[in-house]
Amino acid sequence: MITHFQYKPLFKQVNLPGWRISFYFRGNHYDGTYHKNGQIEWGVMTPPKEVVTDIQSQIHELMLFHVYE
């Protein structure tokens, strides 16, 4: 489960898409860039391959709730 999820726009101009995201998962801190098409570019640490699909799904749901609604 993702905890301490945060996001902020990449650019000061709000109508340009793209967000900087950060969160904790299983005690590890992850960050990256969330693009308008749902693609995630991971920062320094990439989540383990066996859970990356689940994490991406959770992030997509959070972004739909916070940004698009």
UniProtKB/TrEMBL annotation:
It comes from the Bacteria. Pfam families: DUF5342. InterPro entries: UCP037692 (IPR017263). This is YheE family protein. It comes from Metabacillus litoralis.
